[in-house]
Sequence to fold (81 residues):
Amino acid sequence: MTPTSWRTWWHNHRVHERTHGTKHMVHPAVGPMTIRYEALALPGDDDQTLFIYTTGTLTSRAARTGHRPPAIPSSHGDPVA
Fold:
């Protein structure tokens, strides 16, 4: 790509927002994981987006070790399962 074609491409390219999809990662304790996500725009506030992440069934390694993700403390200090 020449500098001129690069400038033209960069000027004209469009960035697409991804509102849903999957991510793949390897967790050190449970092994491979597939995480699904959705991004939900909140009505009336263009600066806010709610992201929801979910996982499928546990990997065989996670099932063997009995590993579960830790509880996340709420803003009040109580754990949220």
Q: What stands out?
A: The beta strands are 20-27, 31-41, 49-55, 72-73, 79-80. The chain is about 20% helix and 35% strand. The longest helix spans residues 3-12.
